[in-house]
Design a protein that fits this description.
single chain, about 110 residues
């Protein structure tokens, strides 16, 4: 008898610098994956990001602030991708995924 299982979630469309981390997540235990889903950006980084976005709206960013804003955005995007991937790996492993309204508020 052949056991057929679904493949793990693909990383083909993820940024190349994240692919190895995402693939490695497929081997993590449930508790480790849940820990990833709970990571949050620090309040100070969130505040800085908001301040820079406001300055950007008013076209008041310096070049270094523009680079910092870009870095903060990329870090936030990568964190959200890692969290989403952790949930998809949890689902792949058969872990029950909570409804949206049951997820922790950020």
């Amino acid at each position: 008898m052949t056991l057929i299982t679904n493949p793990p979630p693909t990383v083909d469309y993820a940024p190349s610098e994240l692919r190895a981390d995402l693939v490695a997540m497929q081997n993590l235990e449930v508790g480790q994956l849940l820990a990833i889903t709970e990571i949050q950006i620090s309040p100070s980084q969130q505040e800085l990001h908001l301040q820079l976005l406001e300055k950007n709206q008013n076209d008041q960013l310096t070049d270094s602030e523009r680079q910092l804003l870009k870095s903060l955005r990329i870090n936030a995007d990568y964190l959200m991708l890692k969290k989403a991937y952790a949930w998809s790996v949890l689902k792949w492993k058969g872990y029950p995924i909570p409804e949206l309204n049951q997820l922790p508020k950020e």
